[in-house]
Design goal:
The chain is α/β, with parallel strands linked by helices. The chain is built from eleven helices and ten strands. 42% of the residues lie in helices and 22% in strands. The structure holds adenosine-5'-triphosphate and magnesium ion. The site of magnesium ion has 5 residues, from helix 3.
């Protein structure tokens, strides 16, 4: 494996370039352009309660490009702007300025086309507790206009993927937190979306379920070429399954790269992603505020 001029190893460049002796960053931009971009934002900003006393700038000039089939992790402290980004991209709220698109469809002016392409697990997602897993999935499948045959096939496959076959007919209120979380991911997958937004998919679940959820996300992305944007505080999941991560701090994207490169550049003694993110947030000069 070769090192680039910054002393970092870059497998992405190696796979996509031969023996070119161009500046790595130029090659990187060139390769990104050649590939299909699934999610793009340009100077995306969000101010809540604008011109009021409690005005909050949740997102500031966010520029991201996420390739088709990529798993991208959005990291950052509580209130960093992760959910705000997901909400804008899934057409739930409008940005104050800037633009965002899914496969070149603008999330505001072409919102119905965008909605057809995406599946979403919101941070505050709930399920119909008195329904079974099958009924929950079937209800969403009907809402999305799927034909009976497609509904049956998709639901059978998803129930298998999330390993809920034995309990599929039980009422959701009798499920554990991890079972509910897995069902929520399956629900986001109904209609075979091309882009999946998962806001904290592993929140509140144990290590075994977390591992299972990681496998599910990775399988979906790599076998079905689905693009995944997930926000997470779970650094192990981010490190293990994300192709790239972006670190948000107070609405600003302060770093973006593959987990190994983020670790190499910013981690200290611990040499892991958590350490890198803590250092990064500290480096911006207001770490004390974050931990208050
Ligand atoms: N509807 C709203 N009205 C006013 N302010 C809001 C609203 N939603 C979010 N905010 C504020 O915007 C900022 C970003 O919030 P956001 O939910 O995007 O953060 P987050 O990174 O998802 O945090 P967490 O990790 O806690 O989920 C925070 O300061 C939050 O209080
Ligand atoms: Mg959030």
């Amino acid at each position: 494996m070769k090192s680039n001029k910054y002393g970092t190893k870059n497998t992405f460049l190696q796979e996509n370039t031969c023996e070119l002796s161009l500046e790595p960053r130029i090659i990187h931009c060139f390769v990104m352009r050649m590939e299909t971009i699934a999610i793009a934002t340009d100077r995306l900003s969000k101010i809540y309660n604008m011109n009021r006393k409690n005005e909050v700038q949740a997102l500031r000039d966010l520029n991201i490009r996420i390739k088709k089939g990529e798993i991208y992790g959005l990291l950052g402290e509580n209130g960093a702007g992760k959910t705000t980004t997901v909400r804008i991209l899934t057409t739930m709220i409008k940005a104050t300025s800037g633009t965002a698109s899914i496969f070149e469809n603008d999330v505001v002016t072409e919102s119905s086309a965008v909605r057809k392409m995406l599946g979403c697990l919101p941070q505050d997602a709930g399920l119909y507790e008195e329904f079974s897993a099958i009924e929950n999935l079937d209800f969403i499948a009907k809402l999305r206009g799927l034909k009976q045959e497609d509904r049956k096939t998709q639901i059978t496959n998803l129930i298998k993927t999330i390993n809920l076959e034995e309990r599929k007919n039980d009422r959701v209120e009798t499920y554990s937190g991890g079972m509910k979380r897995r069902l929520m991911i399956a629900r986001a997958m109904i209609g075979e979306p091309q882009v999946l937004f998962l806001d904290e998919p592993t929140a509140g679940i144990d290590v075994l379920v977390s591992r299972r959820v990681r496998e599910i996300i990775k399988t979906l992305a790599k076998q079905n070429n689905i693009t995944v944007l997930m926000s997470t505080h779970d650094m192990i999941s981010a490190e293990r399954i994300c192709d790239r991560v972006g670190v948000l701090h107070k609405g600003v994207l302060i770093a973006e790269d593959t987990p190994p490169k983020i670790i190499q550049e910013y981690a200290g003694e611990q040499n892991d992603l958590e350490d890198a993110v803590v250092n990064l947030i500290g480096w911006t000069g207001d770490s004390d505020e974050v931990f208050e």
